[in-house]
Input
Amino acid sequence: MKKVKLSIILLLFFQVSAQTKADLQLLAEINQIKAIDNHSHAERVTSENEIDEEGDALACGGLEFVSPPPMRLRIDNPIYTGAWRDFFGFRADAINEESSRRYLLIKNKIRREKGDSYPAWILNKLNIEVMLANRIAIGRGLDSPRFRWVTYGDPLLLPFGTRGARQVNPDVKFFYSQEEKLLKRFLWDLKITKLPLDFEQYLKTVVTATLERHKANGAIAVKFLAAYYRSLDFAETSKSEAQSVYAKYANGGGEPTPAEYKKFQDYVFRFIAGEAARLNLVVHIHTGGGCGHFFNLKTANPLLLEPFINSPNRKAKIVLIHGGYPFTDETAFLIEKPNVYADFSAQTFLLSPRSLSRVLRDWLEYEPEKVLFGTDASPATPDVNWEESAWLTNKTAREALAIALTEMVNDGEITRPRASEIARMVLRENANALYGFGLKD
Output
């Protein structure tokens, strides 16, 4: 019996010991890399009492939540006091009404002092050289080259009525209403008061014209949030099928059936991907889990994109945003495709550094050239806003990367110099090459 107990103790000891700690020298190197953040929801500078209404096209704050969010996303999590300390020198043991009040006095004072330079000041604190901002419009203080604009493509897939589709669940109702508002803005910007009756004209004067306009205004990528309202199965569809649907409903003749709308969207999505390639816009696609209690996880599996990825339209560069989490094993195989990349944004606030390191190691063993750093820094409350979110996710990402690379070195898979090289690739050089930034040290 004593031998059994001793064996159990030894087993537990070796299991704990097997949890590799990050090499401190490597972590120090990683913390000094000027990163490129592939995915964020940075807020523009606003005047006092002004609200930023040009942020995320489908902000999750508009949903009704019943269950509490994951632990690391809870705004009373004391982990965020680390951001309070590192950004503004304010120390607190907990987040409560009193500590938040005192913190915001200091934070708001510095925001006023920094003015339009405040967002870039935050990036300097995080050692992030470039942050890609997913926004309706880029906005004050989010100036290039420090901030780069990622626009949205979903409204172009939804030119017809969605009244029937909105009845599916409360989340979908909210999402469709947001997309409808954004389409109206796209049309307003183009000085178009009603949809063209001809499908070819819709593609030319609305779809292509919108992409060209956004490109001219600084967009470097176009993002799709389709997983929030439909499957990622964008099947090959003939132009004549899409044209038939458009001709039937463009003049306000009701609402397409789900099957009809899917055919139309399938064709237009692939058309947009082709135009994005022509305009040198990278295609970002939300993959994996999303917010809202009615989110359909199985239809957000990145494997559903494989027929599209394997299609002749391979010139489009595709980034699987959030790396398909929790379908990260599937993502590891997909990034072997020549035109596919993945970032690990969102995983940076859902997972601990230890858990995230396991995902990163799997990906780095496949295609280290295709892995992109991303924070998914997102606004929440004044005291835990996009800045504090960026602090947590930036810290988590760098620690996770250090752990994964340390393990690979210890296991003899890579050399120590190669670990440093891969770290730079993930945090900076892969994105630098993908977007053609041409950044130098």
Summary: The two ends are 62 Å apart (CA to CA).
